[in-house]
Amino acid sequence: MKIALTIQYNGLHFHGFQRQTGERSVQEEIENILKIYFRSNVRIHCAGRTDSGVHSAGQVIHFEINESDLLFRTKDVSSQSNINLSLPHKSSNPHIHKFEMHIDRMIYNLNCILPKDISIIYGNIVPDDFHARFSCQSREYIYGIITSKYRMAMYQNNHLWIRYPVDLDSMRQAAEYLIGEHDFASFTKNIYKVTNEITIRRVDKIYIIPKDSFLYFYFHGSGFLHNMIRIITGTLLLVGRGDITPFEVQNILKSQNRVNAGNTLPAFPLVFLNARYRDYQTPHELIPYYEMLGL
């Protein structure tokens, strides 16, 4: 049996998603809890590995367990009438529907023992050929910026504060040059070019959304290279404050040379928003950015 889960985490105290020796990671924390819960080793796979400090509002993972293990660990589900087991989107597939209450009970149980900076917000049975990374059709990210006159301590761990005005129209014009399938070598670590790795990606949407004293950069595409969103956002901010023209972004893209693009912005304002699949979708109402930004 294969199960997919949508997880949120505050990346501040994690050294990225992927398990790393001697460092705290999201993968290690979840796998340790699953081992305790199912009393056997469970390996998880994710839609996209995030760097140190990056947050998640809708990361997707999957793992495999025996059907009997799920039923045994959630055998008391029918007696838990005092717990609000919410099923926002019931499946029409009879096989999946049979296990929905058990999945919901499992999520409740796991959230009770996970560390406070990780939570599961949704989950379901997925087909045997599902893979959180390789079945993913597109991924979405948000980069958050504060544009207020004075810094705001409440948001210092998840937004970047800038102290200069920016021209939204110029940034949006520049972003148009990045839409489509391109070689994004200029917007990732130079090592990719040195080692001849593929740096072609498809970007479907870049929205730049002002919201009161905040500015959000929304990215939607097939996948993103290491640091790609942080470098693109840094480059668009150069356009926004008039250091370069929108047209120069097209030249930067064509140059395939990292030194021509803007700075790599910090990781902490970056949020993995969602991953989209044919066979699994996280309800948008569980991810507040959609309603807040009108996506």
Account of the protein in words:
The chain has eight helices and ten strands. The protein is α+β, with helices and mostly antiparallel strands and 295 residues long. The chain folds into two domains: 134 residues, 2-Layer Sandwich (Alpha-Beta Plaits), CATH 3.30.70.580; 134 residues, Alpha-Beta Plaits, CATH 3.30.70. Strands 1, 2, 3, 4, 5, 6, 7, 8, 9 and 10 form a ten-stranded mixed beta sheet that branches. Helix 4 runs parallel beside helix 7. About 3% of the residues have low confidence.
List the helices and strands and how they pair.
Layout: E1 2-9, H1 26-38, E2 45-46, E3 55-64, H2 67-73, H3 94-113, E4 118-126, E5 138-146, E6 160-161, H4 168-176, E7 180-183, H5 191-194, E8 200-211, E9 214-221, H6 228-240, H7 246-255, E10 270-276, H8 289-293
Parallel strand pairs: 3-10, 5-6
Antiparallel strand pairs: 1-3, 1-4, 2-3, 5-9, 5-10, 7-8, 8-9
Helix pairs in contact: 4-6, 4-7
> Termini separation (Å)?
33 Å
Query: Which parts are unreliable, with pLDDT below 50 for 5 consecutive residues or more?
Result: 79-87
Give the structural class. alpha+beta
- Major sheet: size, sense and barrel closure? 10 strands, mixed
Number of domains: 2
Strand content: 15-25%
Secondary structure tally: strands: 10
The averaged pLDDT comes out at 91
Please give the count of helices: 8
Q: What string, H for helix and E for strand, traces the elements in order?
A: EHEEHHEEEHEHEEHHEH
Using only C-alpha atoms, the radius of gyration works out to 21 Å
